[in-house]
Amino acid sequence: MNQHCILGAGLIGSYIGGVLHSRGYPVHFVRRRATERVDLHLTDYQGHQQTIPDIDYLAVANCADIIHSDIDYLWLTVKCTAISQSLIDMQDLISKKTIILCCQNGIGSEQLVQQAFPNNSVLRVMVPFNVVEAQSGHFHRGSEGHLVIEQDQQGHATTLQQALYCELLPTSVCADMQAMQWAKLQLNLSNAVNALSNMPVKAMLQQRGYRLVIAALMQELLQVAQAKGFELPRLTALPAHWLPFVLRLPNGLFSLLANKMLAIDPTVRTSMWWDVHHQRATEVNFLNGAVVAHGQRLNIHTPCNQRIVDLIKQAETRKSMQAFSPAELLKAIVGKDC
Fold it and tell me: Is 300 exposed, middle or buried (0-12, 13-18, 19+ CB in 10 A)?
């Protein structure tokens, strides 16, 4: 049976690894520091649940018991900001047969992995949902979406889809992963808004001022994606090009038309909020920064994404979080009042 290694077994990694383990696959959970054995409890926003007893988290420095030649699939579930260190950590875990699965948000991280391991197959994975640790060992998927794996000629993606697919983790395969990543990036542009609002995602989306900011960020991305010739797949109930229009609607109409968009646990926050909260470097360069970078190459002006990158960079260094009101953030990003 195929063996899996989760490198960066945090929120997403623990959830994916827990599902694989529950379905009978050998899984090594590896993170920066070892922890005591724990029982994993997986739940989702629809009420599904699964308990996996006695999971051992290994530290990167103590992986001598893992025989690298036995690892068929390595899931790289660290953030983009940790890729450089992970490429070093992976050296003793990768063999020629190992398939590497990159689960990062944003654009471009898989290129760094492929450069470091040119003889290995590197597949991109799109994770559209949020996972939080409700309490120690309890990982909760708080929003909808299929895990999407890049299709390959060898059929590894289909094998993984069959291994993972269950109520806790719907999984699909995609042939055009570049367009898929840009569609996911469109949704991830709101992560910075969530960090600067300093409130849960659902509460943020219920305020039109924040939605107007997100709509402006998305509109710039759509211009860049169109210039690159991408037809963005639908990741939500609404097509990608409709999202800015719907986000701009008054609160009452938005609530009626976007009820699925609001089908989120009321406590969910984005990973960027957590990074700012803990004064850590964020992934903003791979998200909003990617829109700016690709726009510059195409001579497309993306001022809203540039401004929010600047605000996040400032927020990363603050000792205490600053909460922007909807009106304050709209004026700072778009330059006008609600």
Answer: middle
Long-range contacts of 134-139 (CB under 8 A, 24+ apart): 134/43, 136/38, 137/38, 137/39, 137/40, 137/41, 137/55, 138/40, 138/41, 138/43, 139/11, 139/14, 139/15, 139/18, 139/40, 139/41, 139/42, 139/43
Confirm if 171 and 156 have CB atoms less than 8 A apart.
no
Q: What's the token pair of residue 172?
A: 């699909």
> What is the Cα–Cα distance from 131 to 143, expressed in whole angstroms?
8
- Coil, helix or strand for 37? strand
Domain locations in the chain as residue ranges: 4-175, 180-333
Task: Decide if 17 contacts 27 (C-beta within 8 A).
Answer: yes
Q: Are 153 and 119 in contact (CB under 8 A)?
A: no
CATH code for 4-175? 3.40.50.720
- DSSP letter at 233? P
Beta bridge partners of 43: 49, 140
Q: What pLDDT is stored for residue 301 in this prediction?
A: 96
Burial (CB < 10 A; 0-12, 13-18, 19+), residue 67, is: exposed
| Residue 247: strand, helix, or coil | helix
d(CA 218, CA 300): 14
- CATH of span 180-333: 1.10.1040.10
Interval 236-254 mean pLDDT: 91
Cα–Cα distance, 109 to 132 (Å, whole number): 23
| pTM attached to this predicted model | 0.82
Structure tokens at 46: 């629809």
Residue 337 has pLDDT above 60, yes or no: no
Strand order in the sheet with 73-76: 131-135, 138-141, 35-44, 49-59, 27-31, 4-7, 73-76, 99-102, 122-126, 147-150, 171-174
CA distance linking residue 36 with residue 29, whole number of Å = 12
pLDDT, one tens digit per residue, over 48-102 is 999 999 998 888 877 766 766 689 999 999 988 889 999 999 988 899 999 999 9
